[in-house]
């Protein structure tokens, strides 16, 4: 399957990434290889293969949910650098 440089540029812009022309050429080639490989999967004969939802016959053994007493607010906040009104106070990182 062919993928164009414009496709790669569009994908990069959606991901808010900037690439040089050399990198775009490289990604165009790599994406084409991946898509060609995926296209080969469509050629696999799965006529007599039953659908599987779980490869291994394994049932998850989960523990029972038991409500336990947790830490108090004071215990949780004692290691915080700064807190206010019973909540963590964080530095502003986005303008």
UniProtKB/TrEMBL annotation:
Keyword terms of this UniProt record: ATP-binding, Ligase, Nucleotide-binding, Protein biosynthesis, Transferase
E.C. number: 6.3.5.-
GO biological process, one term: glutaminyl-tRNAGln biosynthesis via transamidation
Family annotation (InterPro entries): Asp/Glu-ADT_sf_sub_c, GatC
MF annotations from Gene Ontology: asparaginyl-tRNA synthase (glutamine-hydrolyzing) activity; ATP binding; glutaminyl-tRNA synthase (glutamine-hydrolyzing) activity; transferase activity
Catalytic activity field: L-aspartyl-tRNA(Asn) + L-glutamine + ATP + H2O = L-asparaginyl-tRNA(Asn) + L-glutamate + ADP + phosphate + 2 H(+); L-glutamyl-tRNA(Gln) + L-glutamine + ATP + H2O = L-glutaminyl-tRNA(Gln) + L-glutamate + ADP + phosphate + H(+)
Keyword DNA repair listed: no
Family according to the record: Belongs to the GatC family.
Alphabetical list of NCBIfam families matching this protein: gatC (TIGR00135)
Subunit structure: Heterotrimer of A, B and C subunits.
Record function comment: Allows the formation of correctly charged Asn-tRNA(Asn) or Gln-tRNA(Gln) through the transamidation of misacylated Asp-tRNA(Asn) or Glu-tRNA(Gln) in organisms which lack either or both of asparaginyl-tRNA or glutaminyl-tRNA synthetases. The reaction takes place in the presence of glutamine and ATP through an activated phospho-Asp-tRNA(Asn) or phospho-Glu-tRNA(Gln).
The protein's name: Aspartyl/glutamyl-tRNA(Asn/Gln) amidotransferase subunit C
Organism encoding this protein: Tissierella praeacuta DSM 18095
Phylogenetic lineage: Bacteria, Bacillati, Bacillota, Tissierellia, Tissierellales
């Amino acid at each position: 399957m062919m993928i164009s440089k414009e496709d790669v540029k569009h994908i990069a812009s959606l991901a808010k990434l900037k690439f040089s022309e050399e990198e775009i050429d490289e990604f165009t080639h790599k994406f084409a290889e991946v898509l060609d490989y995926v296209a080969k999967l469509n050629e696999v004969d799965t006529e007599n293969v039953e659908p599987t939802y779980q490869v291994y016959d394994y049932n998850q053994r989960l523990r029972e949910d038991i409500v336990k007493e947790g830490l108090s607010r004071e215990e949780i906040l004692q290691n915080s650098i700064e807190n206010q009104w019973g909540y963590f106070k964080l530095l502003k990182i986005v303008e």
